[in-house]
Specification:
By secondary structure, the chain is of the alpha+beta class. Helix content is 31%, strand content 40%. The chain contains three helices and five strands; from the N terminus they run H-E-E-E-H-H-E-E. It has a five-stranded mixed β-sheet with strand order 1-2-3-4-5, with helices on both faces.
């Protein structure tokens, strides 16, 4: 996705979805030594989650393995470990992928891929 506005809209869409479904949003666009975390949240079960948001045009679409290359997954895992250490997090944690389908530049649908990367605990 090349248009930064589309990416921001997708992130806002996912942040609203998280709030509406009982997640606690801790940070947006968190800069770490390993790159930026789109969304950092705690899921309803109490797990710390990095949510990587990908915006895509109508379900052209997205397979989890195509959305995040192994290096990206590893980078997100390291970023999560960094964020967890900064917050003195003691519980479970994971990386999820939120794929947002856009139509006319606006979010239309959400596909969720849970636990695409689990850092060493």
């Amino acid at each position: 996705m090349r248009d930064p506005r589309s990416g921001r809209r997708a992130e806002a869409f996912v942040a609203r979805w998280l709030a509406d479904t009982g997640w606690r949003l801790l940070a947006r666009n968190l800069r770490t030594p390993y790159g930026e975390i789109d969304l950092l949240a705690v899921d309803p079960g109490g797990e710390l989650v990095v949510v990587e948001v990908k915006a895509r045009h109508p379900l052209s679409w997205l397979r989890e393995e195509d959305a995040l290359r192994p290096r990206q997954r590893a980078r997100l895992g390291r970023a999560l470990e960094w964020a967890a250490a900064r917050r003195r997090w003691q519980g479970a944690m994971r990386v999820d992928l939120a794929a947002v389908e856009l139509e006319g530049g606006r979010p239309r649908a959400l596909a969720w891929f849970e636990d695409v990367e689990t850092p060493a605990e």
